[in-house]
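We treat protein structure as text, and this decision shapes the records that our systems exchange. Such a record has a labelled line for the sequence and another for the backbone structure tokens. The record that follows is passed on verbatim for readers who wish to inspect the format:
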Amino acid sequence: MDYGLLSIDSFAKIDMKIGFDAKRAFFNRSGLGNYSRHALQLLAQYYPDHSYVLYTPSLGNPLDFEMSQAQIQGPQGWKNRKLKSLWRSLWMAKDLNRDGIDLFHGLSNQLPKNIEQFSGKTIVTIHDLIFLRYPELYKKADRMIDTRKFRHAAEQADRVISVSEQTKADLVDFFDIPAAKIDVVYQGCHAVFQQKVSKDAQENLRKKYQLPQDFLLSVGTIEARKNVGIVVEALQKQGIDVPLVVVGQPTPYLDEIKALINTGSGPKVKVVFLHEVPMADMPGLYQMAQVFIYPSLFEGFGIPIIEALFSDTPVITSQGSCFPESGGDAACYIDPHQAESVAEAIQKVLNDSELQDDMIARGQHHRQQFTDQEVAKNLMQVYQKVME
């Protein structure tokens, strides 16, 4: 299929059949699943003339995810149905040819091993290479498997999407992928974060989760890399009397945080841990918080920062990694290894209403590059590039 050199508007009107590895969209509640669902729904919304086929190994007990314009395709034949995971990771290319797919997009770091048998074009999104930057946080077997999968996908794809300049640099450094082959397409956040939550609804949330009137908010899996312990330490050392609300799935690191709270040298810090919070409740929590704090050591992008910017909540986050891309000039940056740096930033933002207003205004400007329309347009431009 020869598309020639077309503008994004004219290209968007050409009927193209696009396939996706959609397993994460149906079954993953966290980052990769959110990215997959958001990307698919934006493409369907802004470019409805294309045909979309979602490939998933199973539909048993999926998440509440619908894309009415899309065809959902599972494994065909007794062998593929019996060995579903192998179908997704090894054998899917033949089905793509059978279904007349023009372009296949691996949304979550991998492509089928036999993708070279596919006659169409391919794109893969690589979210991060944290397992190579911080190998001590991952099991050796997992690192070996992910290295093989990620490298294969990045090498075999016609183009690679990275979610940040940081991830692009890592792809060049660790896998020797040519920079010219990589397109940075920033992520957005769910539309619910772009809606104001009424005061009554906020009060209902406060009662539901037994939240204090004023609080700092941190969102993300409660694991060592997310580094929420440094916030607890900062509050203790400086005697900052503001509760911390932590929203995220627990890991063994949670026990370390609780031990720190109970044995720290300073005043005992009040920390509220919330798990399994539904997406519908998250915007209200962001909008109720005085400050959002994200002291992660390293990320591929940092979606919670974007969620906070759309919630008009001042952001404190880490120096380096992808964080300046996500927070821009709207965030206050800290050294995530130094409790004094964290405490100083918290006190600075909490005690200066003019600074808070300025950070919110800067955030409203910076977040324009993460709007739904911008994200959809940038994805379609990569599709255009690979099809030319």
Q: What stands out?
A: Confidence is low (pLDDT under 50) at residues 1-8.
